[in-house]
Amino acid sequence: MPKLFISLLSPAVATDEGYDVRSAWMIQEDDGRIRARGETDFRGLAELIDPGTDWVGVPGNIVVTVPSEHVLSLSCEVPGRSVGQIRRALPFVVEEFVTSDIESMHLASAEIRRGDPVRVNLIERDVLDGWLACLASLDVRPGYLLPDAELLPAADREASLLLDGDRALIRTRDQAAALDRDNLPLAVSALDIDRLTVVHGELTDLETGQLAQEVELVRADSAATGSALEYVARAWRQADAINLLQGAYRPRQPVNPLWERWRPAAALAAVWVGVALVAMSAQAIYASYQADRLSAESEALYRSWFPQEQRVTNVRRQLQAKLGERSAESGGGLLPYLTALAAVTDGSARIQSLNFTGERNELAVDMTVGGFDALDQIKGNLAEHGVDAEITSAEQLPDGVRARMRLRGAGGAS
């Protein structure tokens, strides 16, 4: 797709008619040919950009450079044993390099590596917000916002120089800056470098004579005399430049039209999934409630049969232990007897022990009841439930009658 390059030459100041901002622009085709270019103000940009053009709506197709005069570029050592610790400590380290409140500054960094100095760009949030608001009013949302001086190459003990009218951009391995051309000799003399490479523009004879006394002067083979924006278009992909659009300023990716078409269906599906999850959760909660209720009822029934039991942890296992029940022999014949006993006894009857014999389908019961009349009543009620009860012994005790019974014939009971 084509690329739109915009070089913002001044801060964007809001006015009644839009914004007061100077800029240069260029549209480059895929094959590198320049479709159009020029310099204009806010109104000219508004007439230039057609928001309905598909490729303009893709942030990756919009490259914006900003004057490095408004960006503090530096490299610093940041303590930390992990990348996360270094990132958290970075604002406190760079705070000593700025005179304004660090909270009013936007901080963007290059990739952080443990043990290496961290390259950082600092810019006033108000200035950055002004540029982005100006571009947003034109329906332009760039994917790259780059300080122009950082588009120059960098090497150890070397500096790169770009000349653009009265302005000069200079960059070393760990810093980049923009300055008035008159101050160029002074700036170069302050750098600890051996070579200065001119990547764009022409030095005057006077400048050449002044700079040659300080360092070795070299002109890059690819240096051109065209506009600085043309150099940007050639160099931005290979340049080790920090994109200022980080953190809260990270560009949002455009919505896929196919996703827009299917988004209502996806939203409806999400609603149904939510309903299903709620229903499943409610079912699980109800099942858990029922399990707790049945467990409590089982424990209550067990305690009514064995009131002397102090600790009930597993009703099934403890009942099997009381009965001496063997799983291979039970054959399911015990349940009818327990059902009949539960129906004919009340709280006055206390069961001391139960012993079920699977081979004979017979249950021996040792229980204490209120008296002999109550014992006969239990025997008669068992008969109504299809259980033949034989009283093998009965003994009068101070608190009632203790009796032993042998129950048979409950295999077909319901």
Key descriptive features of the protein:
414 residues; alpha+beta; 5-stranded mixed sheet; 11 helices; 34% helix; rod-shaped
Note down, in words, how this protein is organized.
There is one protein chain. This protein has 414 residues and is an alpha+beta fold. The protein is built from eleven helices and 19 strands. It has a five-stranded mixed beta sheet, sandwiched between helices. A five-stranded mixed beta sheet has the order 13-12-11-14-15. It has a four-stranded antiparallel beta sheet with strand order 16-17-19-18, with helices on one face. A hairpin with a 4-residue loop joins β16 and β17 (362-369). The longest helix has 49 residues, at 257-305. Residues 325-331 have low confidence and may be disordered.
Mean pLDDT: 85
- DSSP summary: helix tally: 11
The low-confidence parts are 325-331
Q: What is the strand tally?
A: 19
Round the Cα radius of gyration to an integer and report it: 45 Å
Order of H and E elements = EEEEEHEEHEEHEEEEHEHEHHHHHEEHEE
Strand line-up in the sheet with most strands = 5-4-1-6-10
Write the layout of secondary structure elements.
Layout lengths: L2 E6 L4 E3 L2 E3 L2 E6 L5 E7 L1 H7 L13 E5 L4 E6 L6 H12 L10 E5 L8 E7 H13 L6 E4 L10 E7 L2 E5 L4 E5 L3 H6 L5 E6 L4 H8 L3 E9 L3 H8 L21 H49 L9 H9 L3 H4 L3 H11 L5 E8 L4 E8 L2 H13 L3 E10 L2 E9 L6
Parallel strand pairs: 1-6, 6-10, 11-14, 14-15
Antiparallel strand pairs: 1-4, 2-3, 4-5, 7-9, 8-9, 11-12, 12-13, 16-17, 17-19, 18-19
Care to give the gist of this entry?
With about 425 residues, this protein is an alpha+beta fold. It has helices at about 40-50, 85-95, 125-135, 185-190, 205-210, 230-235, 255-305, 315-325, 325-330, 335-345, 370-385; strands at about 5-10, 15, 20, 25-30, 35-40, 60-65, 70-75, 105-110, 120-125, 145, 160-165, 165-170, 175-180, 195-200, 215-225, 350-355, 360-370, 390-395, 400-410.
